[in-house]
Amino acid sequence: WRIVLPEGYGETALTAAKDFQDYLFVSMGVSVLVCGPEQNGGEKTVMLTVAPGMEQDYVITIGDAVTIAARDERGLAQGLYCLEDRMNIRRAPFFKRETISHRFLFSPRMIHSGYGLDEYPDEHLSAIAHAGMDAILVFVKGINATPSGFLDFNELISRAAKYGLDVYAYSYLVSEMHPEEEGAQEFYDKLYGSLFEACPGFKGIILVGESVGFPSNDPHVTPKNMAKSADGIPHGKPRPGWWPCEDYPQWLECVKRAVRRHKKDADIVFWTYNWGYVSEEERLKLIRSLPTDISLQATYEMFESYPAGKITETCADYTLAFAGPGQYFASEAKAAAERGIRLYAMTNTGGMTWDMGTIPYEPMPQQWMERYRGLREANEKWGLCGLMESHHYGFWPSFIGDLAKQAFIAENDSMEESLMDVLRARFGEGNEDKICRALELWSEAIRRYTPSDADQYGAFRIGPSYPLCLIKEIKPPSESFAHFGNGIVEVLYPADYSPTNALPCGRGMLPSLRLAGEIASLEEMFRLMEEGARLLKEVAAPNRELLYLTNLGEYICCCVQTGIHAKQWYSLTSKLKAEEKREAVRAYLEDIKALIAAERKNAERALDLV
């Protein structure tokens, strides 16, 4: 067989053709040639053809020859990956004679690196592209500068392009001037314009309130980002990054002019992450004043409050516990559609939310499928067209990524069938039903998770190495390359639930009112996770992928147990500190020592799994 490149082919088509050649040789034991366009025609040929203006991303026609026609070279690459997916399911180098026509619902599909912060070796870029994503994210503090140090942006942009990936700059460029100040445009020309002048290959830039430090004049916020006035008394107002300030449109115009002076089609992405807690009236007032030639990004499930038994839970940060969409997203999506603003969503569909900080991905496909269905509906109702699929944690190649890729193809009629195909491809044939049942239990388990700040920034962020502190805060060491380190880790169960707090936890019930309910919910989560892991252990002759999946499920059990212990610790130590009777104090101390012993045993179990 021969793989024939298209006329005038570039690096993206060549890289994809070589990848397919390598796949066939390594995975299927088949040796094929990669040829130039002059070798076209005939049977036993995989013909690659670029047809600009096609409605579909690619069309594959399989007969005595295989033809892939695509609107661009990225489509050709995805067509070849589709053939790989089909062979993975069949576990052999054979196809049905058919025509496969695919259109992707979302672009961009943006992802952070899961290999290391802002680190993208070629193998990881290839894995990202194979998962159907088409853009990567880099934190930017200046030209070739990230929070971790030097990075040659143009070199990364060039390498990513070979795999059909755009690169977005995630702005950490601090705005020190208000647009109305004298010299403001010159300042932003230097701050943002110089970046795109030096690196015109950036596809666009992500702008989020807490990261850009906009010095707003809105009366609702602190002046010049100052938390306290000159006399040291707190203002009692949020910083501009945490409020939909009325002068954000002015600032956006300044940034937009600076960037598009050097790249006319740059995608300016304005993300409303930080003010989901604010009233709908205030949020939509800002959206209705935004320029329409930008992209609006809203977070999909955050800030949502929902009943969980006898208590009310609030999605403090990104979570899979609530499939979404949240009211915050729906309201802003509708407003964006009414104004004709291009709409993106922060969805974490790369496979990892902020529910647990020490796992590679969340293996709960049925709950992910609920999110995928909501995203497809948002595409139809409000024109949702782009996704940010992770923040910080990045992307770990897994069967969840495989499933998302299939779910975001317009022609996909059945996610359930896609799931069974993915399970066969990853874990082998003959055990799909049992594996699927185990994963259903895990999907039910994640719905029992408690997505509070106390959990997401505490025990679940650290996992079974979480320290149970009585008075003094003792944080585990963090690696130098870990963004934020332990800066946003709480090792004393946070009890600050002030209603004036401008963060989601400010809307939560008091711990005394919800701890018992949350512990009961997590105990049910633990039971469901253990039952699912037990089912997976019953599979005869598991392959390595299935052994890793089982191990991951058991490790999540350890994380859940730590989460339960952290809540019990808070309850016991709180009672201890308020107790006046000596005998009662001694009883509490015995309970506390027993809890320490139980958590030590849990941590030892986790060590074996790690």
Number of strands: 18
Distance between the termini: 44 Å
As laid out across the biggest beta sheet, the strand order is 7-8-11-12-13-14-17-18
Anisotropy-based shape: globular
Largest sheet: 8 strands, parallel, barrel
In the predicted model, the low-confidence regions spanning at least 5 consecutive residues are 497-506
**Mean pLDDT level:** 93
**Portion of residues within helices:** 40-55%
What is the number of helical segments per DSSP (H or I, 4+ residues)?
17
Rg over alpha carbons: 26 Å
- Pairing-aware structural class of the strands and helices? alpha/beta
What does this structure look like?
- The chain has 610 residues and is of the alpha/beta class.
- It is 43% helix and 13% strand.
- The protein has helices spanning 11-28, 73-90, 122-130, 153-162, 184-198, 209-212, 248-260, 280-287, 327-339, 365-382, 399-407, 415-427, 432-446, 453-462, 511-537, 544-578, 582-609, and strands at residues 2-4, 33-35, 45-50, 58-62, 66-70, 99-102, 109-111, 135-140, 145-146, 149-150, 166-171, 204-208, 267-271, 295-299, 305-308, 311-314, 342-346, 384-388.
- The strands form four sheets. It has an eight-stranded parallel barrel with strand order 7-8-11-12-13-14-17-18. Strands 2-1-3-5-4-6 form a six-stranded mixed β-sheet, with helices on one face. Strands 9-10 form a two-stranded antiparallel sheet.
- The longest helix has 35 residues, at 544-578.
